[in-house]
Specification:
The structure is a homodimer. By secondary structure, chain A is α+β, with helices and mostly antiparallel strands. Helices cover 29% and strands 23% of the residues of chain A. At the A-B interface, helix 1, strand 2, strand 5, helix 3 and strand 6 of A face helix 1, strand 2, strand 5, helix 3 and strand 6 of B.
């Protein structure tokens, strides 16, 4: 940007928070270059923007939750905040140890509302077997905040199942953590269930959206589900498709691994309710955020067994192998129902702002 | 609170965020009881609300920064956010390892403003020798947030100086971390420099306050200063007097330790500028927030030497022994300049909202 004169000043837009191209540009252009110094070297390169950093063997992550409204079918900001942070630790191959609770509250919020949300955080933490160990409370004047923001950060330690899991891949890997760097052509891509549920649930809770699907958010801590997959073995990369959905996740994997990804659209599980909501709104379910789904890249010979292990867990009943890594294409390619091929681009941002 | 009927609904007030009586009631009444379960037991009891939790040997803390305005004499929200979290790790006896950066940005914030703040975070992290290892970015619609909130969480490991330091106390201690549980009658209370600078600097930056003191915020990472004290030894408790100031800190220490604290008012370092700003506004400097000061409880035979070590460090030049723990009184008692005694109560909240 040119200084002074008649230059147009660049400003933050909603798209910068959308988990897609604009957010990545801001993070890669303005944030990471300034922070890349000092202290011990991270075990997963920061430029790949892993869901958790690993420093001296400790997995460490942070997420702020600005979801609107605070309550939606299947969950609330409390459940979301614990699940999201537990999942960020889970997907690098860590077992969550503790999370923090940073509450930023608008003056005037009923204490009863806060109580419900705290209760929900406690329940989700108990599901995940993780302690809410430290916290902070700030209050902002009425009109200067939209009810409540929660930041949860988390720490975790290397899962005791990870070494054996990686060994089962049967080949040498780039990283001893779960990262897309490990993906090679032939690896199968598995999603643990239907996509888009969280985004549609939040949209229905916003009265202005005009859709009334009966869909519940999938918000859930996934460390238990992940343990089942790791016990089987052969998992080389994992991630939960939050902002920007499966489209952002797969594009990130293709970019980091340098390997193309082919997805069979008909095999991607989408509930009928989500499908019709997407049709009405003209949105691709691949772009929608999830808060209780795992995407795994698995060595081909282990994929069927990992799939079965997911399906045997209550949170993975509708798991599917949806595609594979391939050297035939660059980026992400979708085979459509009628047999055609289309590129699936990195979304500019999430179609639904403040989804998490 | 009675349910339904004509009951008055309890709501969050600005005082709940003020670091005093109201905040403690909310945390002890609504938050801690719900979170006290699951995962490994913390090494410092949660009910004492330590600045950092210690879980499986890892110190872990979180703080959100809502300071207004974003820039003030001597610092900005970026410097503050790194310093505050580094200091929370430091005061339990940990050496900071990494911090996170959770940015919550209002739509429309100039990217140039964000750049200045990120630069400032990087500088403070470099001063502290700590890596900004992980982050998150959320954007909220214009009018739904006041420019920018930053959450920084931090992880640390036990300082290599801590064991020898505790041994130098020359007595058995309740905790192997720095906590007020360790305080015994006779321990000297040391403050590392002038108090109230941060609060007055922020107040002068708010045009509506009508005071024009030339005071700079003390916001600084204190792990280097703390190292000097720990090298000497005999430090049994430490804390930085943020929201609620020295008054809240000392009352918390008296409550947790069950030992009274006597402070000699004339020995508490206060700059002339802060003193006169306080006179104009009718505020006690003891209630004002600091972001670059340490308060230490030190075994009596080590206190003079610790004092000298602080004074030899650029951040501790105006350190003073301001009082001592005593069994003669309960709570916190101040000996005034004219020789009288007054109780110093736990403040209801910070006199300056959104100070950090």
């Amino acid at each position: 940007m040119a200084e002074g004169g008649g230059a147009v000043e660049e400003k933050i837009t909603m798209m910068h928070g959308g988990g897609g191209v604009f957010m990545n540009m801001l993070i890669r252009g303005h944030i990471l270059p300034r922070f890349d110094a000092g202290g011990p070297e991270p075990e997963i390169p920061a430029e790949h923007m892993p869901d958790s950093a690993v420093i001296d063997g400790i997995a460490f992550t942070t997420d702020s939750y600005t979801v609107k409204p605070l309550f939606f079918p299947g969950g609330d900001i409390g459940r979301l905040s614990i699940s999201g942070t537990v999942n960020d630790l889970t997907v690098v191959g860590a077992e969550p140890l503790a999370v923090s609770c940073g509450l930023i509250v608008e003056e005037g919020l009923p204490i009863r509302t806060l109580d419900r949300i705290l209760e929900s955080m406690a329940e989700a933490a108990s599901e995940a077997g993780v302690r809410i160990a430290t916290g902070d409370l700030k209050v902002v004047e009425k009109g200067k905040l939209d009810e409540l923001i929660i930041n949860t950060s988390g720490i975790g330690v290397r899962s005791s199942l990870l070494d054996a899991n990686l060994e089962s891949a049967g080949r040498s890997l780039e990283s001893r953590w779960l990262t897309p760097l490990n993906i090679k052509p032939g690896d199968k891509i598995i999603v643990s269930g239907t996509i888009g549920d969280h985004a549609v649930a939040v949209m229905t809770a916003r009265e202005e959206m005009g859709i009334r699907a009966r869909v519940e958010s999938d918000a859930a801590p996934l460390n238990g589900l992940m343990r089942e997959a790791l016990k089987v073995g052969g998992v080389v990369a994992a991630k939960d498709p939050t902002r920007g959905g499966l489209a952002a996740l797969l594009n990130e994997w293709a970019e980091v691994s340098g390997v193309g990804i082919m997805v069979d659209e008909e095999r991607v599980p989408v509930s009928e309710q989500v499908r019709s909501a997407c049709d009405i709104l003209g949105i691709d379910p691949m772009d929608l955020a999830n808060e209780g789904k795992l995407v795994l890249a698995v060595a081909p010979h282990m994929a069927e067994e990992v799939l079965q292990s997911l399906r045997n867990h209550p949170l993975g009943k509708r798991a599917e192998i949806i595609g594979e890594a391939t050297k035939e294409y660059e980026g992400v390619v979708v085979r459509t129902g009628i047999g055609g091929l289309r590129y699936l681009p990195m979304p500019a941002g999430d179609p639904v702002p403040r989804i998490c």
